[in-house]
Amino acid sequence: MHKIPRIFTALVAFAALLSAPMALAQDTKAKAAPAAAKSADAAPKGKDLYSQPYFDFMLKQRTAQGQPDTPELRTAVRDELNTRELLVREARKQGLDKSAAVKTEMDLTSQTVLVRAYMTDYLKAHPIPEDQMRKEYDAIKGQIGDKEYKVRHILTDKEDEAKEIIIALQKGEKFEKLAERSKDNGSKINGGDLDWNAPANFVKPFSDAMVSLQKGKFTTTPVQTQFGWHVIQLDDIRDAKVPPYDEVKPQLAQRMQGQVVERYLKDLRAKNGL
After folding, report:
1. If we measure between CA atoms, which residue out of 249, 252, 270 comes closest to residue 260?
2. For the chain, is the Cβ count within 10 Å smaller at the N or the C terminus?
């Protein structure tokens, strides 16, 4: 099975605001009279430290993630942006923005944003034609075939071990019990069950042996693959259930977009001697 590549990901870390007590000034010869020290960085009540585009961008991000645009969300966004700005100012006071490591990380983050924006525009300018997606769907459908097989297997490191299992099966021992010897930890706990699969989901020696079996039968000779030696039992056969084109179209488009990006990046590196 092919996994759709994740092209870009961006992780954003949010800092927690720590409150600090206000400094108090007191005249030692007079009565104690606290006076709040004014900070140039402190925002007057009701004033925001961020620009409106920052607010609009973050609000759009949150609503795009499924959060409803409510007064509570807007307050949370406002609080977060103010908090960010206060923390940024404190970081600059300590000179962290002059740190070589911090500068490098900020530059890389900036690159990530530019790359994501560029590739988004590139994919918009190079959409996958409908006829190509349908052609790809038909090709995948053809690979799947018209049958699915419910199959079990026992995997061993050595051929002799697989032969011993076959002899035990021929003597009437249960496949599920013998599967406890399997090196495939994922299926051994289920009696070797691999569930329903199309032949294309397996390597060729395995799938060839599987489709040649009759329902309820097992292989009488071990089947070798790059994983080891298999004893295979076919439990059942059914007509393949291939989802309709419209149902898988979004995933298909994403997969083909990934292929477009891979080709573009390959050509780009080649043109630049990489």
Report:
1. 252
2. N
DSSP state of 158: S
Calculate the alpha carbon distances from 1 to 197, 201, 255 in Å.
11, 6, 12
Query: How far is Cα 176 from Cα 231, in angstroms, rounded to an integer?
Result: 12
Domain 147-239 has CATH 3.40.50.720: no
Mean pLDDT over 200-206 rounds to: 95
Give how far Cα 6 sits from Cα of 49, 102, 114, 255, 266, Å: 35, 26, 17, 10, 17
Q: Taking the domains of the chain in order of start, what are their residue ranges? A: 52-120, 147-239
Residue with tokens 């800092």: 15
Q: How far, CA to CA in Å, does 176 sit from each of 15, 71, 171, 187?
A: 53, 59, 14, 10
Cα 72 vs. chain centroid, distance in angstroms? 30
- Is 205 within 8 Å of 137 (Cβ atoms)? no
Q: Which amino acid is at 213?
A: L
Indicate the pTM of the whole model: 0.56
